[in-house]
């Protein structure tokens, strides 16, 4: 087993775990809650939609199930977050506090292009069905 395989697997697991925490803040009000009131985001709002994606789609990437489409969706959500919420405060991420959405966007885009890797539910299902992964 190559070190790159282990490192990629850790990237595919740790990155959605970190974003999932933002989702449970927005969706359930856990881990300090969302916003100045430390509550939840209204479900039928942009923040609510983001919370749903972060809470219920990132676990698919974490376990490696439907990895490519799930990671692509999350990458798009992070790009949307940057361009709707951060860019209005200036272009540069360091100035508009958009470093996390930009980083998450590109890491999830990389995961989407690279695929699930050998330590994933997708790979396990492929091995069981005899299909190449």
Characterization of the model:
With 133 residues, the protein is an all-alpha fold. It has one domain (3-129). It has helices at residues 3-28, 46-56, 58-63, 67-86, 93-96, 99-114, 121-129. Helix 1 packs across helix 2 and helix 4 (67-86) runs antiparallel to helix 6. The longest helix has 26 residues, at 3-28. The two termini are 16 Å apart.
TL;DR of this structure?
With 133 residues, the protein is mainly α.
List the helices and strands and how they pair.
Elements: H1 3-28, H2 46-56, H3 58-63, H4 67-86, H5 93-96, H6 99-114, H7 121-129
Helix pairs in contact: 1-2, 1-6, 4-6
Tally of distinct domains: 1
Which term fits the overall shape? globular
Q: Could you give the order of the helices and strands? A: HHHHHHH
Quaternary state reads single chain
> Main beta sheet: strand number and arrangement?
none
| Structural class designation | mainly alpha
Give the fraction of residues assigned to helices: 55-70%
β-strand amount: under 5%
**What would the average pLDDT be, to the nearest integer?**
94
């Amino acid at each position: 087993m190559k070190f790159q395989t282990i490192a990629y697997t850790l990237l595919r697991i740790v990155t959605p775990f970190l974003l999932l925490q933002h989702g449970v803040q927005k969706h359930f009000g856990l881990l300090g809650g969302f916003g100045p009131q430390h509550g939840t985001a209204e479900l039928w709002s942009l923040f609510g939609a983001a919370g749903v994606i972060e809470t219920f789609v990132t676990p698919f990437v974490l376990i490696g199930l439907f990895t490519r489409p799930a990671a692509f969706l999350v990458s798009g959500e992070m790009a949307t977050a940057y361009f709707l919420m951060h860019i209005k405060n200036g272009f540069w991420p360091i100035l508009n506090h958009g470093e996390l959405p930009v980083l998450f966007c590109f890491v999830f885009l990389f995961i989407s292009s690279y695929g699930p890797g050998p330590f994933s539910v997708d790979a396990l299902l492929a091995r069981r069905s005899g299909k190449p992964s």
